Amino acid sequence: MLKPKEVCQKLGISYRTLQSYVKKGYIQPVILQSGKWRFREEDVERLMGIVRKRKVILYAGVSSNTQKDDLVNQVKYLEENVKEYDQVITDVGSGLNVKRKGFFKLLRMCPVTLMKPKG
């Protein structure tokens, strides 16, 4: 049996998201006499097949080749301050330049969720 914190770590989700999954019926907790939740390993493993872990992408950019040292410093700062990340994407080019390959690569990696208005 796993504690909620352990489940969150395995799934890469927050405690609030875990609460939401329980409310939606995605996973069922075992409620102890104390009222605390525990989760069966097999339920967590089943849910692991459904839940996609979020990717953390670090992005840094500068305006010109003369600022490449600044780019190196930006990346170093990000890497030092973000504990876990999957990838680093960098760009050299004006903020108004629409040919920023790294930025558009980052956008393509973002999942698109369409929201339907209630009513």
Automatic annotation (TrEMBL):
Transmembrane intervals: none
Resolvase/invertase-type recombinase catalytic domain ranges (all copies): 55-119
Signal peptide: none
Protein name: Putative site-specific integrase-resolvase
GO MF terms held by the record: DNA binding; DNA strand exchange activity
UniProt cross-references to InterPro entries, sorted A to Z: DNA-bd_dom_put_sf, HTH_17, Recombinase/Transposase-rel, Resolv_N, Resolvase-like_N_sf
Listed Pfam families: HTH_17, Resolvase
Top-level division of the source organism's lineage: Archaea
